[in-house]
Amino acid sequence: MTTVDLLQEFEQNYSVSTADITAKIGQLQSLLPSERTTAINEIRRLLSEVEDLLEQMELSVRELEVGSTERNRYENSVRSFRTDRKNLENEFKKAVQRLQRASDRDELFEDGLSVDQEDQLIANTERLERTSRKIQDAYRVTVETEDIGNTVLENLSSQRETLHRARDRLRVGDAELSSSNRLLGVMIQRVIQNRLILLVVAVVMMFFLLVFMYRAL
C-alpha cells in the first residue's frame, strides 16, 4: 500500500469517526441520565482516536515529496481536519455543560422552588451565558486588536529602517557630491592657471618676435 493509499484510508476513517461523534453529541440531550455517562465516555474515546488518526496522517504526509501536489493537498487536509476536531471538542464541552446546568436546575426544582423562582433562575442562567459570550467576544476583539497593533508596529519598524538606510545613502551622496565639487573647483583653477601661463608665453613670444623684426629692419 502506497502512502497516498494509506492517507486516503485515513481520510475515510476520519469521516466515519467524526460523523459518529457528531451524531452522539446530538443524542446526549435525549438520553436518560443513567445513559449519559457512558455516552460521554464513548465520545471522549472517539475524540482521542481521531487525535491519534491525525497524528498518523501527519507522519504519513511527511513521507511525501516536499512541494509535491499530493503533499500540499494532504497538509491542507490535516489542518482542516484539526480545525474540525477542535470544533467538535468545543461542541462536546458545551453539550456537557448544558447537561450539567440542566441537572443542577432539576435538583433545585426537586427541592421545592416556586414557578417564579424557576423562571428567575432560568433568566439568571441565560443572562450569565450572554455575559460569558460578550466577555469571549471582547477577548477575541482584544486579541485581534493586539495582532493588528503588532503588525502595525512591525511595519513602522520596517519603514523606520528603510528611512534610516535612505538617510545614510543621502549622507554618502552628499559627501560624494561635496568631494566632487572640491575636485571640480581644483580642476577649474588649474585650467585658469594654464590659460594664464599660455597667455603670458604668447605675449612674451610676440614681444621677442617684434624685437627681432625691428632689428632686422
UniProtKB/TrEMBL annotation:
Localization in the cell: Endomembrane system; Golgi apparatus membrane
Family matches, as Gene3D superfamilies: 1.20.5.110, t-snare proteins
Domain Vesicle transport v-SNARE N-terminal: 5-95
Pfam families: V-SNARE (PF05008), V-SNARE_C (PF12352)
InterPro entries (UniProt xref): GOSR2/Membrin/Bos1, SNARE, v-SNARE_N_sf, Vesicle_trsprt_v-SNARE_N
Cellular component terms (Gene Ontology): cytosol; endoplasmic reticulum membrane; ER to Golgi transport vesicle membrane; Golgi membrane; late endosome membrane; SNARE complex
Membrane topology: Single-pass type IV membrane protein; Single-pass membrane protein
A single MF term (Gene Ontology): SNAP receptor activity
A biological-process GO annotation: macroautophagy
Keywords, alphabetical: Coiled coil, Golgi apparatus, Membrane, Protein transport, Transmembrane, Transmembrane helix, Transport
Annotated coiled-coil segments of the chain: 36-105
Transmembrane segments: 196-214
Family: Belongs to the VTI1 family.
Subunit structure: Interacts with distinct SNARE complexes that contain either STX5 or STX6. Interacts with NAPA and, to a lesser extent, with NAPG. Identified in a complex containing STX6, STX12, VAMP4 and VTI1A.
Protein name: Vesicle transport through interaction with t-SNAREs homolog 1A
Organism: Bursaphelenchus okinawaensis
Organism ancestry: Eukaryota, Metazoa, Ecdysozoa, Nematoda, Chromadorea
